[in-house]
Amino acid sequence: MRILLLGATGRTGRHILEQALENQMEVVVVVRDAKKLAVQQHPSLVIWEGDVDNADLIKKAITGCHVVISGLNVSRKNDLPWAPLVTPVDLMSRTTSQLLPIAQQAGVEQLIVLSACGVGDSISITPAWFRWVMRNTNVRFPYADHEKQEKLITNSNLNYTIIRPVALSDQPKNLPVIVSEENKPKPRFMYLPRTALATFVLAIVGTDKYSRKTIVVSA
């Protein structure tokens, strides 16, 4: 299985990369700075340096890949809600608009995209305080771009799975993941370790279990 992984230097992407290589998958990454990768040399790792919204670069990197996994996000300087953005406000939607036709032409079998609980209709299962944060702080920017990204994907012909995780933590725990389809059941705990999310993502690679579905995942 050959995977194109976008967002491999992110806090979740690094776990997906490490676990994929441990599971003997071939991984192709597109990153701006290869020095930021958790794994920089591996016989099953191919590294392309450049911008993820560079269509020509993506066309080269996607060659021979069966699956595309995107862990891209519009990032802030830190986790504080009012922290300034450090990536373009439309990074995900702009990259996705270029990726979709390329992936279709390349014959990609599966697209797995990390979004966030609170995007679209899943806002109904978030706490009231979080909805306030989403409306009144810089958190609103990644959520708005996730929503644009999701619409692009659901209107495509690709076999996609959109995953909306609850708040992510860096706890080194691989807890069981609870899947909510159509926001049911409502998550009991609004957190999920990144390691557990990475394990779940790789577990559905090559399956049709959540084909053309948008799901919420929690611990």
Structure write-up:
With 219 residues, the protein is of the alpha/beta class. It has one domain: NAD(P)-binding Rossmann-like Domain (Rossmann fold, 3-Layer(aba) Sandwich). It has six helices and ten strands; from the N terminus they run βαββαβαβααββββαβ. It has helices at 13-22, 55-61, 91-106, 128-136, 140-154, 194-203; strands at residues 2-6, 26-31, 45-49, 67-70, 110-114, 160-165, 167-169, 178-181, 191-193, 213-218. The chain has an eight-stranded mixed β-sheet with strand order 3-2-1-4-5-6-10-8, with helices on both faces. A two-stranded parallel ribbon has the order 7-9. β1 (2-6), α1 (13-22) and β2 (26-31) form a beta-alpha-beta unit. The mean pLDDT is 96.
β-sheet strand percentage: 15-25%
Number of strands: 10
Fourth CATH level, the homologous superfamily: NAD(P)-binding Rossmann-like Domain
Number of domains: 1
Summarize the structure.
The protein is α/β, with parallel strands linked by helices.
Secondary-structure blueprint of this entry?
Blueprint: E1 2-6, H1 13-22, E2 26-31, E3 45-49, H2 55-61, E4 67-70, H3 91-106, E5 110-114, H4 128-136, H5 140-154, E6 160-165, E7 167-169, E8 178-181, E9 191-193, H6 194-203, E10 213-218
Parallel strand pairs: 1-2, 1-4, 2-3, 4-5, 5-6, 6-10, 7-9
Antiparallel strand pairs: 8-10
List the keywords:
two-stranded parallel ribbon, 8-stranded mixed β-sheet, 219 residues, 10 strands, Rossmann fold, alpha/beta, single chain
